[in-house]
Design brief:
- Helix content is 52%, strand content 0%.
- By secondary structure, the chain is mostly helical.
């Protein structure tokens, strides 16, 4: 019987093209980009380069691009960003 995966809200399989592109970063360039050692600096260059590419693609500034570790962190960042951006507005519910 063929299995069907129905939990895409939880996680999804990675596209083969994404896996191919990510392979160097799973085994070669894997340092913490927040670290000051050579491994971290190498990873930071990659992250900064990708941040610039994403920014150009969507017409944003690189400092506006924030990478998160998953859906919950992304949701929290968005909610906090909206709250911060509208903090001076008076809201009537």
């Amino acid at each position: 019987m063929k299995r069907i995966y129905l939990d895409y809200a939880s996680t999804t399989p990675a596209d083969p093209e994404v896996i191919r592109e990510m392979l160097p970063y799973f085994s070669g360039i894997y340092g913490n980009p927040s670290s000051v050692h050579a491994f971290g600096r190498e990873a930071r260059k990659v992250v900064d380069s990708v941040r610039e590419k994403v920014a150009r693609f969507i017409g944003a500034n690189p400092h506006e691009i924030v990478f998160t570790s998953g859906g919950t962190e992304s949701d929290n960042t968005a909610v906090k960003g909206i709250a911060y951006a509208t903090r001076s507005r008076e809201t009537i519910l």
